[in-house]
């Protein structure tokens, strides 16, 4: 672990002066084989802080490769959060793919140059980068190229299925539970769900099950805006009408979206691609309602907070546009990643200092709980303020503590749970202080 985190208000200028030289020769569109070579080249250049692994295969058998950055690649370290970037979910929306390849090269180069901001990020975070979730769709789009690519050509996978309409629909269950005071997190998947989704979707869900991701962004194209949950409206579909569909964490999601928008070269200005979004952000359902999307699924099934980043008016911009896009997104990619280090984090132990996995962490006034990982560590993104936090686990007495969160690094708050009396498991919580140790047209799908 490195020194405590501080807000990098002046680091945009630093990043602008360092890193790879930005010229047209640095940028190109990467077909599958080119992308794989680029990822393995990064791993070769930075072998001690990177790892490449595959989370599965596409319909046509292409690997879904992930490049990991960490000071201990291949291993989760307690109290070190897991972060992911996902690109190219829609095969013809290619800017995210190219940005994530370039971002991987940038992280490697800056680490080798001892840029302390990047060194801290890699030492204190486990970063996972999936440049292409839909490599089959990309190959279809790439055959037409930037000049002739249609709005839908290559959007879906090899079976022409839109992967951002392919996740199990947990929103309907969540909205029902809101009315019946049911479960508010880690909702159950439907029976036989594995046989109802595409191979790429299945691979990503299994990935989520295997890693305790805390923060994520999904990179798209076709607009310029930071989109946050919920994507699916609570109201029935009414033609020509949209409604804001807030999560219990609406304030933090708005802050996360603004972090990217204001660090981006022009997203925050609002007017882009003929549309206007105040501050360059939007609630998904307020834009248009979308069912079975990935960002809502992250929030309802895992501990992960995900937003969708629409990054370019052109879904398949020419290679000549890539240098400008990189300069516009570079600081935003770093600043957003740093948000994983805010809020609270800690360990949940029993009275013998053994970690308790899957303990539930609840925050009074926010109807969305998170759970501890298999090592007993938990992470809860929060805005600055004072909170009442409770840890609970089956067979233990719940414990409640008060904590004040600041604007900088996450506050560590550990819990030590005592076994519940066998004759009465329903005991009131103990209390104590913190341990100081645009509407969608019928035939023209929206960008997301």
Could you please describe the fold and organization of this structure?
The chain is of the alpha/beta class and 448 residues long. It is built from 11 helices and 19 strands. The protein folds into 2 domains: 32-341, Aminopeptidase, CATH 3.40.630; 343-419, Immunoglobulin-like. It has helices spanning 11-17, 32-45, 95-112, 116-124, 135-148, 171-180, 199-210, 250-263, 284-287, 294-301, 322-338, and strands at residues 50-57, 63-69, 82-87, 126-130, 213-220, 223-228, 271-272, 275-276, 281-283, 305-312, 344-350, 360-363, 366-371, 377-380, 385-392, 399-405, 411-412, 415-417, 430-433. The strands form 4 sheets. The chain has an 8-stranded mixed beta sheet with strand order 1-2-4-3-5-10-6-9, sandwiched between helices. Strands 13-12-15-16-19 form a 5-stranded mixed beta sheet, with no helix packed on it. Strands 11, 14, 17 and 18 form a 4-stranded mixed beta sheet that branches. Strand 15 and strand 16 (399-405) form a beta hairpin. Helix 2 (32-45) runs parallel beside helix 3, helix 3 crosses helix 11 and helix 8 (250-263) packs antiparallel against helix 11 (322-338). The chain starts with 10 loop residues before the first helix and ends in a 15-residue tail after the last strand.
């Amino acid at each position: 672990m490195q020194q405590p985190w501080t807000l990098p208000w002046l680091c945009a200028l630093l990043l602008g002066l360092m890193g790879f030289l930005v010229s047209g020769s640095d940028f190109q569109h990467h077909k599958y084989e080119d992308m794989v070579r680029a990822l393995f080249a990064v791993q070769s250049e930075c072998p001690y802080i990177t790892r490449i692994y595959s989370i599965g295969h596409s319909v046509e058998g292409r690997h879904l490769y992930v490049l990991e950055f960490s000071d201990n690649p291949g291993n989760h370290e307690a109290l070190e959060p897991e972060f992911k970037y996902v690109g190219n979910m829609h095969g013809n929306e290619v800017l995210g793919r190219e940005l994530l390849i370039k971002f991987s090269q940038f992280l490697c180069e800056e680490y080798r140059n001892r840029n302390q901001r990047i060194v801290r990020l890699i030492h204190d975070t486990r970063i996972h980068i999936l440049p292409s979730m839909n490599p089959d769709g990309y190959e279809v789009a790439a055959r037409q190229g930037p000049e002739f690519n249609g709005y839908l050509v290559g959007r879906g996978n090899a079976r022409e299925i839109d992967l951002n309409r392919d996740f199990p629909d947990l929103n309907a269950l969540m909205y029902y539970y809101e009315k019946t005071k049911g479960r508010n997190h880690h909702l159950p998947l439907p029976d036989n769900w594995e046989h109802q989704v595409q191979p790429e979707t299945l691979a990503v869900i299994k990935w989520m099950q295997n890693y305790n991701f805390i923060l994520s962004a999904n990179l798209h194209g076709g607009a310029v805006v930071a989109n946050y949950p919920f994507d699916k409206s609570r109201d029935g579909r009414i033609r020509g009408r949209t409604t804001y569909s807030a999560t219990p964490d609406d304030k933090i999601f708005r802050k996360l979206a603004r972090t990217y928008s204001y660090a981006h070269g022009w997203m925050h200005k609002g007017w882009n691609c003929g549309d206007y979004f105040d501050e360059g952000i939007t609630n998904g359902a307020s834009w248009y309602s979308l069912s079975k999307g990935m960002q809502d699924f992250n929030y309802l099934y895992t501990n992960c907070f995900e937003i969708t980043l629409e990054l370019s008016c052109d879904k398949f911009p020419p290679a000549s546009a890539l240098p400008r896009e990189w300069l516009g997104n570079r600081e935003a990619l770093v600043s957003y990643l740093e948000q994983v280090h805010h809020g609270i984090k800690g360990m949940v132990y029993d009275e013998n200092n053994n970690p308790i996995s899957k303990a539930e962490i609840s925050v009074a006034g926010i109807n969305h709980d998170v759970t501890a990982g298999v090592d007993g560590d938990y992470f809860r993104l929060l805005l600055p303020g004072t909170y009442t936090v409770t840890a609970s686990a089956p067979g233990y007495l719940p414990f409640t503590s008060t904590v004040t969160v600041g604007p900088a690094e996450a506050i560590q708050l550990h819990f030590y749970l005592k076994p519940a009396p066998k004759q009465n498991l329903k005991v009131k919580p103990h209390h104590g202080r913190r341990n100081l140790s645009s509407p969608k047209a019928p035939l023209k799908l929206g960008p997301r």
